[in-house]
Amino acid sequence: MAEGPRSSAVSAPESEASSTVPVPCASPGFYVTLIWKLNTLMCSMKAGPIRIAIQTSTPDRKQSATWGDFHFASSLAKELQALGHYARVDCNADARTIGRHREIDVVLTLLGLYDFPVDQRTINLAWVISHPDRLAHAALDRYDYVFVASRSYAGELREQLTTPVQALSQATDTSVFPGPPRPDTPTWPVLFVGNSRKVYRWMVKASVRAKVDLAIYGTLWDNIVPARYIRGINIPNADLGAYYSQAGILLNDHWDTMKEFGFISNRLYDAGACSTFVLTDAVRGLELDFPGSHDVADSEEEFMKKISFYLEHPEERRRRGELAREQVHHSHTFRHRVATLLDCIEELWPLLRLRRTMGQDRFSAAPSGFVGQRGAGR
Question: Of the ranges 20-29, 322-331, 342-351, which one carries the lowest mean pLDDT score?
Answer without folding.
Answer: 20-29
